[in-house]
Amino acid sequence: MSCRLLSSSPPGTVVRAHTGLVAPHTLILLRHAKSDWSGHESDHDRPLAARGRRQAPDAGRWLAANVDSIDLAVVSTAERARSTWDLVSGELGQPPSTQYDDDVYAASVGELLDIVRTLDEALGTVLLVGHNPGIEDLADTLTGDRVPMPTSALAVIELPSAWDGAGRVRGLLRAAGRPPTPGA
Predict the structure, then answer these.
(1) 3-state secondary structure 17-34
(2) Which bin fits 177, alpha (ψ -120 to 50), beta or left (φ > 0)?
(3) CATH of the domain at 138
(4) Which H or E run includes 175?
(5) Cβ atoms within 10 Å, residue 112
(6) Is 112 contained in some domain?
(7) Pairing verdict, β 14-15 and 172-177
(8) Count of domains forming the chain
(9) Does the residue 19 lie in any domain?
(10) pTM of the full predicted structure?
């Protein structure tokens, strides 16, 4: 399966021109939505804030409008990442299979690269829901560009290699940013 970005992306989304080459894999990075720091939960159990519950569906609507299909979602087991994915996937016409992975929580760029490099080659487009600084560092490493990843931000990266070559060959940043909120 492939990732196809429609030409009419929302304002504020960075979209780069395609090189003409067909990328064998597309990795979509999604940083969890804004979390609520007001409680006494552990970091792993911290829920989404009201702003996060509003923003996450916007990311899902952007994905539904701009990406043909997603084969697999790999999601951190942290409450805020799982809740983000629940809200995002609820906006998709056909949500992909989901794999919850403890290793994504608090992962470094090296640990995230290990996860990406072990993905099944049959998967064309994979979405990874995680945390900063790892998600932002992974986007930077895969593209060679600075890719800010505030809460609810997406980065769509075409990888011109097998999954196990991720980070060894520069990927193409196709889109990045936080989907705009309605009325913004």
Answers:
(1) CCCCCCCCEEEEEEECCC
(2) left
(3) 3.40.50.1240
(4) strand 172-177
(5) 26
(6) yes
(7) antiparallel
(8) 1
(9) no
(10) 0.87
Per the structure, the complete domain to which residue 87 belongs is given by: 25-37+49-156
> Binning pLDDT at 50, 70 and 90, where does residue 13 land?
very low
Residue 182 located in a structural domain: no
CA distance 29 to 131: 10
What's the token pair of residue 22?
């067909």
Q: Which residues contact 60 (CB under 8 A, 6 or more apart)?
A: 87, 88, 89, 90, 91, 92
CA 23 to mean position of chain CA atoms: 17
| pLDDT tens sequence across 130-184 | 999 999 999 999 999 999 999 999 999 999 999 999 999 999 999 999 975 443 3
44, two tokens = 């792993």
| Lookup: tokens for 85 | 């994915």
**Rounded to whole angstroms, what are the CA distances from 24 to 1, 21, 83, 86, 125?**
9, 9, 30, 27, 9
Within its chain, how far is the Cα of 179 from the centroid? 12
On whether residue 165 sits in a domain, the answer given is no
Sheet arrangement for strand 154-159? 14-15, 172-177, 154-159, 25-31, 125-130, 72-76, 97-101
